[in-house]
Amino acid sequence: MAITFRQLDAFRAVMLAGTVVGAAKMLGVSQPAISRLISDLEQDIGYNLFEREGRRVSPTGEAKLLFEEVRRALIGLGQIRDAAIEIGRLRYSRLRLVTVPSLASTVVVDLIERFSRDNGETFVSLEVQSSDSALEWVVSEQCDLGIAAAKMESPSIASRTIHVGASVCILPLGHRLAEAEIIRPEMLEGESFVSFRPDALYRREVDTIFLNAGVTRNLIYEARTTDAVCSLVAAGLGVSLVGPLAIARRGDSPEHRNIVARPFTPTPPVTVSLLWSTNHSMSASAKEFLRTVEQHFELQPS
């Protein structure tokens, strides 16, 4: 049994119009075409759907039961058709992003806000994952684009470097090192230090710098997001290292008014990249977001 949507559409039209002639006018086809579709449908399912009385047709009990199922199915098909049209017009598009905690509440917010100015009808979903998990999301195509503090060299991932900068040391207002021109690891010996969570790639890079310098910090605070790290530092609970974008974005926020940012050396370099899977082509909304990123960071179009 190979029932087609054309047969079901003809069946629905006859049920609604009450005659084959009316169904033909409703669908804009010939009366013989409707009769043939109904006849083929009845042959496929093995029983009659209508009793013929001249030009009028009366639905059988089986037809009435089938009609409810067909009605629901065709409504769903119509929704799919409408969605396909809207996707083509970028009016029903969606953009799935994944990023890391250190960027989630900083530069990514700016990028989404700028993207939405010209793509206000695009549904945007933002997922926040650890560095390793974010890369897995990109490779497994659970998202359209990833934004991470990493420069990738993988055949499965394409990347566009969108920002390269130096980390800074953030300290509470009034800290003994607040006026230092440059802060070095040994200057933070024994300091209470606010770290990112252990699953963050940036955390590993920072820990390596202090380990190589033989400097011991008091590691009793950690947080997942840049905003949370800055807030803990602003509360006087310790010092930390963050990427430059964290300071540039929210310079007027209360937590940033209560911290001081100083250059740090040797600095963990921060390379922010836009990532996507090489296993499929970019969607229209992903291409629009790439253009937004290039405009935001004043990059040459790719």
UniProtKB/TrEMBL annotation:
| PROSITE patterns hit by this protein | HTH_LYSR
MF terms (GO), sorted A to Z? DNA-binding transcription factor activity; sequence-specific DNA binding
The UniProt entry, under Pfam families, shows:
HTH_1 (PF00126), LysR_substrate (PF03466)
What are the residue boundaries of the HTH lysR-type domain, all occurrences included? 3-60
Keywords of the record, alphabetical order, are: DNA-binding, Transcription, Transcription regulation
An example GO BP is: positive regulation of gene expression
UniProt cross-references to InterPro entries, sorted A to Z = LysR_HTH_N (IPR000847), LysR_subst-bd (IPR005119), WH-like_DNA-bd_sf (IPR036388), WH_DNA-bd_sf (IPR036390)
Q: Which family does it belong to?
A: Belongs to the LysR transcriptional regulatory family.
* Protein name as catalogued: LysR substrate-binding domain-containing protein
